[in-house]
Cyclic GMP-AMP synthase
Amino acid sequence: PLGPAPTFGPREAAPGAWRPRAVLETLRLSRQEISAAAEVVNRVVDHLVQRLQRCESEFRGVTLLRTGSYYERVKISSPNEFDVMFKLEVPRIQLEEYCNSGAHYFVKFKRNPKGNPLSEFLEEEILSASKMLSKFRKIIKEEIKHIEDTDVIVERKRRGSPAVTLLISKPKEIAVDIILALESKSSWPASTKEGLPIDNWLGVKVRNTLRRQPFYLVPKHAKEGNGFQEETWRLSFSHIEKDILKNHGQSKTCCEINGVKCCRKDCLKLMKYLLEQLKKKFRNRKELDKFCSYHVKTAFLHVCTRDPADSQWRCEDLELCFGSCVAYFLHCLETERLEHYFIPGVNLFSPHQIEKPSKEFLSKQIEYERSNGFPVFGEF
């Protein structure tokens, strides 16, 4: 279990005065910008879903699952990146955990009556993530040729990435990550039993309800030596994260029109922006390559677990609350421990995942920012 993270008293506020509200203001995407981008993305995505549902392929059962920061309302900077999941329900599957990883699994089918629509992707008895992903990719590549009034291309495949990335160049540049996800309605794998620690924050009832939702598997391969085990699938709970971020208050009315506003989402936005700006600043160096907004989001969820009361996230305490999130993230970097929020056995900051020098480098940069009033927020 995670030890208590350091907290800061008001006296220890950073010396360089910076104004978090002003920073957030610059991050606010104009409604117009968002709806223009979303309109293009929705048109392309809806076209693809309809075509997949109509064509005689293994993917005709796909439906759309909108996840990611745009739909969680924590998108920052410009609306130029979207994630969408194309989910495919797979009944009667059996999971076999890969190397005690907790997160990666081989997928098998329990009974294989002749009618298994996915049989062409089976490697012996295992549903091959790479085979399925390449066919999915091929169909999408074919389909985007039929989309009118929009310039779309499929980006070159990135090794180990579960996404098919579309680049839309007109009316403006937008990247859309389309992720194929298998939907399973069986109970969540054993590795998640102690995860989702929201009992004291959102309540036991909410946790039970969330755990009754389906879970998803995405074709993100497990690392194997210097390569990847290409047949594996990774658990995904992005739909649950979206739910939590939407209904994030201990009181049911937190941030509703007549409810009291909290600063939880603002803290998450600032944390994401901090990492994004540092990655820009040091884009010519390798140290920050492996860090991503998911690390920030995971740390943030742990802080919400540790400080469950809405009164600990009052809007007027934004600077303190953000300071507390930063301190916790630094604590994770220093101890080389960031537990996956849903699979506590998985340590996202283990030396095996991210080398120590990278963590020390990021830690040093964040310390510098914190001591100097976050100058990086004003750069680029």
About this structure: Residues 97 and 244 are 27 Å apart (CA to CA). DSSP finds nine helices and 13 strands in the chain. The domain at 10-378 is CATH 3.30.460.90 (Beta Polymerase; domain 2). Confidence is low (pLDDT under 50) at residues 8-15.
